[in-house]
Amino acid sequence: MIKKSLPFLAAVSLIFTTVQAQPNKPQMQQQKQMQGKKKSKSNKAIFLIQRGLPHYTMILMKLWDNPKLALTPEQKTKFEIVRNRTIQGIMELKPQIQQLGKKIVQAARNGTEPKTLYADIDRLAKLKAAATKVHLNCIYETQRILTPEQIAFIDNFLKQKRKKRQ
Fold first, then answer.
1. Which residue positions does the secretion signal occupy (predicted)?
2. Alpha carbons 64 and 132: distance in angstroms, whole number
């Protein structure tokens, strides 16, 4: 009985980390202005892989006008297209993921038999897989826009950021 419940309990514990949606602003400059005004929660809970993958959209917003990164106007235009497509894809999936997660959590708290939740858990996993695919496409497309030197600069920025947290 316990062995059969462990996967269910693991899935339910992941669901407890659902987060609020970030506002979808169409222009990069508007997003950058909002960054300082309001701290928003992370989207990590909607992805299957929650650690290790860079969130280039957030990083590049912070470094948008950094002279050391030196994004060209052409790169900025291409990046805005990738960012908007990524945000649109995530925002389509996020409410479904959160709603289904809440449904599973509520059912588990109400003593529902785990077997009856397996179909919803599978559906939730598929939605999170779709969100992860959107994220991976964003990473891939962003890496194709940036130069190797710019990617190295961002990687170094992330390493320094991690050191500060420790």
1. 1-21
2. 24
Give dist(CA 89, CA 157) in Å, integer: 27
- CA gap 72, 2 in Å, rounded: 57
Q: What token pair was written down for 44?
A: 């990590």
Among residues 2, 6, 19, which one has the least CA distance to residue 128?
Answer: 19
Per-residue pLDDT reduced to its tens digit, 63-102: 999 999 999 999 999 999 999 999 999 999 999 999 999 9
| Secondary structure element (H or E) that encloses residue 81, with its range | helix 73-109
| Residue 45, C-beta contacts closer than 8 angstroms, at least 6 positions apart | 14, 17, 18, 19
CA dist., res. 89 & res. 93, Å (int) = 7
Specify the pTM: 0.70
d(CA 125, CA 101): 10
